[in-house]
Amino acid sequence: MRYNRSVGKSLKAILICLLVPACAGAQDYAGKFYTAGPSTGTFFALTYDDGPGATTPALLDLLASSGAKATFFISGRPSGKNLSALQRACAEGHLAANHTLSHKNYFKLAVDPDKDKILAAELEPTGKAIEKACGYRPRIMRMPNGYSRDWVRKVARAEGYALVNWTYGSDWTKLSDEEMTAGYLKALKPGAILLFHDGGGKVRQRTLRLTRAVLAEAAKRGLEPVTLDRLLNIGDIGDTIPISSGK
Ligand SMILES: [Zn+2]
Question: Which helix H or strand E contains 187, and what residues bound it?
C-alpha cells in the first residue's frame, strides 16, 4: 500500500513538474544548506544531535505527551537499546537524519586530500542503518560541529543530502540553566531550527528541561514543532522513497 501510494505521489509530482517549471526546486534540495525555515507561518523544528542515547527514550515520552515531532541527527550505527530508540522515534513520526558514523573533526580533516571520500564513507553506514531501522534513506545531514564549506556541499549534493545547521543552540556551552533557557525561548520563532543533544552515556536532564520549556512556550504562542522535511518543504521523505528491497 505504501509503495502504491508512493508511485501515485511520484506520478502526480512529475505531472505537476511538467506544468510548473518552478516545482523542480522542491526536489532540488541535495547540496542546499539551511539554518532556518520560512519565517512565515507557525512551524519550527526541534533537532537532537549525537544520539540515540540514554536520553532518547525519556525525550520520546516527553515529545509524545505534547504531540511534538522532532528530527534526530543520528550518529554511528545504532544497536541494542539505541537501535530500539531509533526505531521507536521513526515509528512515532519523528524524522531520522544523518550525523555521520564517527563524528570526525573536519576542521582538522580539511587539509586531507581525501576529505571528500572520507566524508562520503562516513555518511554511508549511518545512512544504511537509518534505512534499515526506519524504512527510508535519510535525505538530511548535519556535519559534526556544524562544519560547512563548499567541498562539503559538493559531497552532500553527490550523496543526495540537504545540509541543515541550526538557528540557535547552547546546551553544550557553559551558560547557566537560566541563560540557556532564555536563549532558547528568545530564539523560538516561526522557522527556527533549535539544536539540542540526546547522545552520551547518561540521561541529559538539561535536554529534557530545555525541551519542556520550549514546548510550553510554543503551545502558549501557537507554534508547532514539525520535522525538518516539513519545515523546509523538501518532500515527505518517508512516503516518497520506497523501502529498499534490502540491497
Ligand atoms: Zn554532533
Answer: helix 177-187
- Write the single-letter amino acid at 61: D
What sign results for the dihedral spanned by CA atoms 21, 27, 28, 29?
A: positive
Q: For residue 14, report the distance from its CA to the centre of ligand 1, in Å.
A: 36
Ligand 1 centroid, distance to 210 Cα (angstroms): 18
List the grid coordinates of 1.
Answer: 500500500
Q: Is 186 exposed, middle or buried (0-12, 13-18, 19+ CB in 10 A)?
A: exposed
CA 20 to chain centre: 29
Cα 42 to ligand 1 centre (Å): 27
Helix then strand then coil, in percent of the chain rounded to 5, is 50, 15, 40
Cβ 56 vs Cβ 203: under 8 Å: no
Q: Which residues are catalytic?
A: 49, 197
Residue type, 3: Y
Q: Across-strand partners of 225?
A: 44
pLDDT for the residue 3 = 43
Alpha carbon of 143 to ligand 1 centroid (Å): 7
Q: Which residues of the chain have pLDDT under 50?
A: 1-26, 238-247
| CA 242 to chain centroid | 19
For residues 213 and 185, the answer to whether their CB atoms sit within 8 Å is: yes
